[in-house]
Amino acid sequence: MKVILMQDVDKIGKIGQVVDVKMGYATNFLIPKGLAKVSNEANMRLVEGIKLKAQRMAEKEKKQSQEFSDKLAGISCTVTMQVGPDGKFYGSVTPADIQKALESEGIQVDKKAISIEEPIEKLGVYHVSIRVHPEVQAKVKVWVVENKGA
Question: Distance (Å, rounded) from C-alpha 97 to C-alpha 80?
Fold first, then answer.
């Protein structure tokens, strides 16, 4: 049965695509849940409007992500690490450490979005990538300093 997807459906397709699925799957799951409509001319015109609206929303979201990325580029954060007598860390800097440092600067970022290319195991200044959108990444300057209090 040919149906038009009204929303993105995992392993089936994206919004607006005409896909061929089994009749039972379409009539018992996709159509009742509002995930798809029967493929015909009237529904095709309806989907074109929905696709246009989704495209505008995606462009707006990308623009907002770019603005947030520009804001992040001007931020630097400090991570304090405990250093042993031989000058080595006890562990390494993790995305969670960077997330906490950014939160102290007033920036909320998911630790899963933080990408550390190489393990940070020495004092110094590093540039870390943060994925704010699938198409937009920001670079944040991270200062790694010794924890003098311990």
Answer: 9
